[in-house]
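Weekly structure sync, notes
Attendees: PL (lead), two postdocs, one rotation student
Agenda item 3: pending single-chain targets
PL asked that the sequence for the first pending target be pasted directly into the notes so everyone works from the same version. It is reproduced below exactly as submitted, 201 residues in total.
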Amino acid sequence: MRQPILYAEQTWKQQRLWVFVLIIAGIAFGAYAIFFEHARVTPSQGLLGYSSYIFVLYIPAAILLFIFLIVYRNRHVLVADERGLTIQNVFSSIFIEWDLIRAPRVRPLIEHFDTRERKRLVRPADRAIMPKGALYFKIRADDARMAEFQRKISRRILFEDTVALPLPDPDAFSWEISSHIPEPAAQNLGGSKRRRGKRRR
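Predicted structure, written out during the meeting:
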């Protein structure tokens, strides 16, 4: 199973506008420089006379920004396989074995930022997903391994021993985790897909 982490999706939605702004600015100011400023340039001015052509560089800058945003969006994912969970980002990934994971559940993401210090980690772009459900689970590891997790996993995602990840379908991932970990640890699953027991007669 594989799902995107919605923090990257929100960054994509907010920053992609700048791609179009840079392209439009590059075309507009570049055209102005070519057709109007060129006539004013004299040989004695040298390269200084062509300073307005810098706007043409906005177009390749927009292309590079677009490529980065696509990679950023596609690399921020949560992956489950037979061995455990992998949290990926642009530059690295962290693997968590199934036997280190406890108590998968689905709760509103805002609960992960319930203190004043934690609220400072919420970016303006992420406020839209704060009321939505997120996948929560706890990590049970020794001090050395826990220090590794805290070093590699963003503070927005990992707080103390609890991971909270905004996903498109956190309920499905909660059930996926519960199928790989011991039964006593698989409690408090997502509400919409929780199985109902049979009524006793």
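Discussion points:
- Residues 83-185 form one domain.
- The chain has two domains: 2-74, 83-185.
Action: rotation student to compare against the earlier draft before next sync.
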